[in-house]
Amino acid sequence: MTVPTGWKLVFAALVAAVCISLQPAGHVAAIDSPAQPGSPIATAALKYLGSYQGQCWGFAKKVVAEATGRRIGFDYRQGFFEAGAVEVSIKDAHAGDVIQYADDAFTAPWADYPGLHTAIILQRSEAGMSVIDSNSFWDGVVRIRTGYDPVEQARIKGLSFHIYRFPGGDGASPVDAAGGPNPTVAFTSGVHGTVVTPGDCLNLRESASRSAAVIYCLPDGAQVTVSQEDVVQADDRTWVHIDTAWGTGWVAADYLAINSADEPSTES
């Protein structure tokens, strides 16, 4: 039976309307949409644009490992912290941060429910956010979405969302940014510490400022000694003065782990 041309047009319009209604929020961007500069994670993600990468979770883990050397664990929340990530607010989020949607009461590796999703931020401005993710259209393909609102996405699915930042993954490379995997504790003159920057290095600077001259970039695992009792707060970072085999200077304290033998005892 021949379908009249007019009915063909009506049917095509109905199919288009159904497809649009099924697609997740956010507009698909042109394939040349750039990431904000200086973000290794966002830059690595863009290399896979338009390719098949399967589930969003696996794609995000692959990109983070490639860009930073850090391996996200299996839990949809604790896995980020195991990789040294810290949580940031939506107002502080920027390129290279990873958004995870989940039910906070069920983030186990075997979790599987509607809305469980992972996306990587490419850009954030007053006009909105753009992200890159895999499988957003349930076909395993990597796409960019613009006009993206994490708050609205979480509300629609009845889930929570968290934004995670990885050392070395947000453009602060070589590393001297706040929010690293090791808290500022026990920085007493004479104690020994270890640089913790897997896949990266830590800037040793002449003074406690990101604008100060770099003396050397300390490798991951480098052994150092704290040389001053007081830390300095500057540029939204905590700085500590250290002695190293490459010279003496200031580093961001978040990327130093105090060696266990030097940590104060907690026994009563």
SSE order and pairing:
Layout: H1 5-22, E1 27-28, H2 40-46, H3 56-68, H4 78-82, E2 86-88, E3 98-102, E4 117-125, E5 128-134, E6 142-148, H5 150-157, E7 160-165, E8 192-195, E9 201-205, E10 214-219, E11 223-226, E12 232-234, E13 237-244, E14 247-252, E15 256-258
Helix pairs in contact: 2-3
**What's the total helix number?**
5
The CATH architecture term of the largest domain is Alpha-Beta Complex
Number of domains: 2
Morphology call:
elongated
Largest sheet features? 7 strands, antiparallel
Which residues sit in consecutive blocks of at least 5 with pLDDT less than 50?
7-23, 29-33, 177-185, 263-268
CATH C-level label of the largest domain: Alpha Beta
Classify the beta-strand content into a percent band.
25-35%
Q: What's the mean pLDDT score?
A: 78
- Rg computed from alpha carbons, rounded to a whole number of angstroms: 23 Å
Oligomer: single chain
In N-to-C order, the SSE pattern is HEHHHEEEEEHEEEEEEEEE
Q: Find the CATH topology of the largest domain.
A: endopeptidase fold (from Nostoc punctiforme)
Specify the structural class: alpha+beta
In whole angstroms, the N-to-C terminal distance is 89 Å
Number of distinct beta strands:
15
CATH superfamily of the largest domain: endopeptidase domain like (from Nostoc punctiforme)
